[in-house]
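Hi all, long-time lurker, first post. I run a small reading group and we've been trying to get comfortable going from sequence to structure in the token notation. Rather than ask abstract questions, I figured I'd post a concrete chain and ask someone more experienced to write out its structure so we can walk through it together at our next meeting. Sequence below, copied exactly:
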Amino acid sequence: MLGAVGGVPVSSPLTSLATPRLHLRTPSPALFLVMALGAGVAVATWPGAMNVDALSQIGQVRSGRYNDWHSGVLVPMWRPLYALGLSAGWVYLGSVVLLAVVLYELLASAMGRRTAGVVTAGLLAYPPVLGLVVYWGRDQWYVGALLAAGASLVAMPGSGNRRTRATIAFTVSVWAMLASRQNAPPAAFVLAVAAMVHGGLGGRQSWLTRLGPGRGYCALRAIALGLAAGAVVAIMLLSQEAVRRVAGVSRVHPEQQTLFYDLAAISIDTGDNWFPAVVYAGDVETLAESFSVVDVLPLVARPDPVISPLRQGAYYELLRAWAGAVVRQPGPYVQARWNLFMHQLAITGPAQHVFHDQVDPNEWGYEFLLPDAFSGVASYLQASTPGTSQDGGPLHAVWGYVLVTVGGLGWFRSARIERRMLAWVCAATLVNTAGLFFVAPTASYRYTWPSVVVGCVVVVVWGADLAKAARPPAPGPARTKTAAASAGAAVR
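-- Answer (accepted) --
Happy to help. Here is the structure in token form:
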């Protein structure tokens, strides 16, 4: 679908824009080489590194019994294809190739095709990116969908069929984002606003353009666009809820992990147990012994968890207790979230678990097709981290990529439509990262990986723009004519 979105110049009647260079309609050799590269990476690391989360999702699709702890939408949708032979390895292959292609297409809107192909290969080999490229799971799916939405945005200011195709590709991409991660709605909302501003999703409504240029009318347009974008995201979420109901996906409230973390932190800070008795009736000292600033797992890890996963009824008691604790103890709550977020950005500690180096033990016989090849990849990734730990080193300092992504917001002032589209992608990524302050139950590198990938894209595009600016301008027709006239005058 992405291949049909837009390899054609587009223009916007709203403003005077430079014509973007899109490469999706006419595939180039560089695109096929990027696809081959993605396939090669996937085959060399087949079926991808798998941890317990990955195996849980695979187990659900094999059994036909689903819950919403991970992806309660994509996993049931995979089930019919799995019955036709689309195994976990093929899903991994498709996701790696898709990620490589959309990364290339996003870069190709800002530089030449060959250069974009070379840069794509370099980014895929960059350890902070590669560490999760070779990981089977929805974090990779989410980033692929995010970049696909960005590539579709670039084609959206066109007209007629071009805008229609771009809008369809964009809608599918954002829908996949929402299906991949439960914390995706804020980023999806930002992208939906971008689409409507630039002509997709019905954004060019005549009544909006007739409102006039006054501040009050601008505010009214902004409110209307926000409501319309929110409605689009809500419709997508409702459609996914319909999928869950049809598939019989059980609701297990994965957000309970965050509530556990917050209540444990508040209890330890205040010295009082803020948990409801049905969840945890022990003392605060026991909580303190198992509590970790960077991870909720020590509290819930089996075989002897301090706090056990909850049933449906107990969850609402937990939620009420959490709300009461946050309202009555806002200081300890904010402090706990701040401490975790600083680890999330790798400011007060290293990035946590920047790659996974194995297929965890499983009952289905999943193992690496080429173990020596993956061992080489794992050794390469290990070389980018200090010691033998899988925690990150200087290259994985997430805060640096976040700052670069903040800098990418400056493209909102650019006259080039491609750069403004990248600014929207930066905004969506930053909203996603900021949301982790409230929802993350652990400081996990994979949560912030979208900022790392988008930050790398921003740096590359900045570099390409600087290289173009440093080149001497080619002599144009007018300059050539003037030079010729001067030469003639000198001869005379």
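A couple of things your group might point at:
The chain is about 65% helix and 0% strand.
Residues 215-247 form the longest helix (33 residues).
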